[in-house]
Amino acid sequence: MTKQTHKMISMYKILGLNLIKNGTAFLKRAFHLKVNKTTRTYLRGILLNKQTPLKNVLFADPNYYFVSIEEMRDIIEHDWTDRAQYEKDWNDCDDFAFRFKSHMQERYGVTAVALCKHIELFDTDTGEHLDFHRANVFFADENGIIKLWFLEPQTDRVVEVKNYTEFIKLTGWLNKLNVFDF
Description:
Elements: H1 3-31, E1 36-39, H2 40-49, E2 57-58, E3 63-66, H3 69-78, H4 93-108, E4 113-123, E5 129-142, E6 145-152, E7 157-160, E8 168-169, E9 173-176, E10 179-181
Parallel strand pairs: 2-10
Antiparallel strand pairs: 1-3, 4-5, 4-9, 4-10, 5-6, 6-7, 8-9
């Protein structure tokens, strides 16, 4: 590698990092979020009310930060996670879910987003088990009440989780929730 090429590559690295840093600052200003704080204890109470077995919920921190559902819907609409090309085993459901969770924390300071792991997929007509899946769940405020929401990060479709034991139909199959990793 020539000295000129090495210098150019170093400049691209610095420029790229500055673009990301400034882009994050622009997004924070554009959304002007009101981030709220709650505790894992409070969130566990919400999950228990939804018949969620706490042995299936992993919390890494004592406190979590969330926004309103209106703000989340706005972020989800403008987030580009769903625009990525699906590629089996390389850029598939787990990658979409990881990406959305990390974007929320890195860009907006919203940490009440979990990886929803080992979701069982069932055929809507036959009830036959099809496969396993990953997506996201998150807490967001709606009219002063913190609620749990399910997000399919590949399509940006969101639905409230009313009961952990109920199937969620957002795409062409039924989703049975399993492990939440906050």
